[in-house]
Structures are given as structure tokens and as C-alpha cells.
Amino acid sequence: MILAHWFIFALSMEFVNFVICKLRKRQGLWKRVYRSGLVPIFLTILVLGYGYYCMHDVVKTTYTINTQKNIREEGYRIAFISDLHFRTTMNETTLEQYCREIEMEHPDFVVLCGDIVDEQTNLLDLQKVFQTLSTIQSDYGVFFVYGNHDRASYNPKADFTPEQLTQILEQNGIHILQEENYSITEDFTIIGREDWYTRDSTITAKQLLTNVDTTNFLLLLDHQPRNLSENAAAGYDLQLSGHTHGGQIWPVGLITDLLGFGEMNYGYRKIDNFQVIVSCGLGGWGYPIRTGYHSEYVIIDIQKDPPVS
């Protein structure tokens, strides 16, 4: 990663040097600066320092979602966490502090949208992270969908098994949603999908709404922001996803946007009556550095549109 940033800045210096040499006849001072090689090194250190700060400076991001569905007058508040990858960037003490911050937002329920742990998490930390997250007080509890890293599928020597993960989630009273729905009230239903890499591809978004009252507000939890047009056509109201980390390390986010990797890198999108929020995550994978967006937890207020006069 450090070499990649240095190479980018060194290549940029080559371009700047070419332009200056073409435009100016005298380049005495510039030549000394250019030949020293210190500028790419300095810029790399600066970017990595900024990336460390962005990764560890967790911010609260808020959204307000309006709906024409006939939900209760006070609406709903959701606390949304994804891509913690415990403990790449924080220990349980720091996580506890963020849990108390989230609790002070008085959410109606909490959603964990995948990759809360990964193949580097040990069994003890696995127990600690979900025990800590389960303490966030809310009216309707904590809901979880699997990400591509949670089961440690990329490491055959991982310190925990998928069965142990499921057991720990259940022991802490966290609702696991795998291609199923859960009605938290008479007007609000949560639908949770298996991760895109491991789900049964024959099960469509529309099929998951069989026997679901579609006059309810339909919240879709899907770790990866894919199949957005399909989900919109199926009648979902809001999708929450993570996975992308907002690119995490520049210029990955820029490259993935240009190449069309996935359908959405970060933020908010509206497709007719369907809305999507993609979080860059509470932490990050691999390196404790991000140069795209600050780490975040997300607070979402869902409110009913006022009647048309």
C-alpha cells in the first residue's frame, strides 16, 4: 500500500517535471527538489497520516427518509452499523464508547449489515464484539445479516467456525436474517438477505416478499449494494448496504466507480419510490487506514409524508 502511494506520487512528479522543463528555461531550484525524491515520500507520509486519522475518527452520518407508506406518526429511527472488521481499528473499550453514543440517539432498532468480524478476528474477540453491540438499548432489538467476511471464509485456519459465530449471535439475542422477513410492528417489516457471494441465486428479491404485507414499510438489509433495479421493481422501500468501505484507500474508490464495480460506492440514491443508503463502515479491512471517507455509524429517520391537501 505504501509503495503504491509512493509510485502514484512519483509518477505525478515525473509529469510535473516534464511540464516545468517545457515551460521554463531555468530549473535550478526545481531540479534540486525533483532529484532529491523527497516530495513523493513526504506526500505519501502525509496521505497515510490523513488516512489513519480518517479511519479512527468515527463520525455520525444522518439521513431522513420520507415515505408515502402509512407508518406510525412518530416514524422510526434506525441505527445502522456495517464493516467493523473487529478489531482492525478499535478494541472493545472504544467500541463500547460508540455503542453508548448510538444509544443516546434513541434508535427504535439497530441493524448490523455484515462484516462485523472477519478472518483475522479470534474467538474471544468474536464473543466480545457481539456482546458489546447487543448492549445498545433499543425498542425492538438488534438485527444482523452476514457479509462476505463474517464467516472467515477466506482463512481455512480461522480461530472460529461459522457455527460458533451463529451460536454467539443467538446467545446475545441478535436476530439473524437469512433470506427471511421479520415484522417488528404491524406497519414495518425487515427483510434480510444472505450475502451475494453465498446466497441461492434462484431466490429473487420478489420471492422474499411472498406472504409479506407489502403495504408495510419494507426495509431490505443486504451487505452488498447489488441488484438495485431488481429490488426497486420488487417493491422495497429502503435498502441498507455496506461492503464497499467507500473505496477505503484512494484511488480504489475512484477506480471502482469508473469501472462500474458494484452498483454504488457510497451514500444515498433514489430510484422512483425505492431508496438506498450505502455506508463506508465503522471500521475497515486489512490496514487501519482510509483515505476516502471517515469511518461512520449511520442514524436514519424514517418519516411519513404529510397528506396532500
Overview of this protein structure:
- The protein is an alpha/beta fold and 309 residues long.
- Helices cover 32% and strands 20% of the residues.
- It contains 8 helices and 12 strands.
- The strands form 2 sheets. It has a 6-stranded mixed sheet with strand order 1-12-2-3-4-5, with helices on one face.
- Helix 4 packs parallel to helix 5 and helix 5 runs parallel beside helix 6.
- It is globular, with a radius of gyration of 22 Å.
Rg, Å, rounded: 22 Å
Helix content: 25-40%
H and E order: HHHEEHEHEHEEEEHEHEEE
Strand numbers in spatial order across the main sheet: 1-12-2-3-4-5
Overall pLDDT score:
86
Structural category = alpha/beta
Count every beta strand, where a strand is a DSSP E run of 2 or more residues.
12
Largest sheet: 6 strands, mixed
The proportion of strand residues reads 15-25%
Distance between the termini: 57 Å
Rough shape? globular
List segments where confidence is low: pLDDT < 50 over at least 5 consecutive residues. Answer: none
Count every helix, treating DSSP H or I runs of 4 or more residues as helices. 8
